[in-house]
Amino acid sequence: MLSSSYLTVETDSTNLFINGFSFTRHMVNADTIYWRCKEFRALRCPARYRQRRTTGLLETGRTNHNHSPISTRRKRGSLKEILRQRTTRKMQS
User: Fold this and answer.
1) 42 and 14 in contact (C-beta within 8 Å)?
2) What are the GO MF terms of this UniProt record (predicted)?
3) Which domains does the chain have, with CATH numbers?
């Protein structure tokens, strides 16, 4: 089952939470809002959703994440280690 909620943060941006994953507004057209995983830049996560502005209906795009839900802020420098481990795994397979 799809569980979603919205949260407006101090920077006046809106976040969408679906099943424990956080999404940010990527693009807004006349009738559609495009959401992408908050970890898109850091982890190149492909997960995306599309929302119709007239009805508010969420349409699934890519629902598979390449990471588990992240509920806490990463410590400084830990992203480099995560990316290094991924590169090592890709080279081994």
Assistant:
1) no
2) zinc ion binding
3) 9-92 (2.20.25.240)
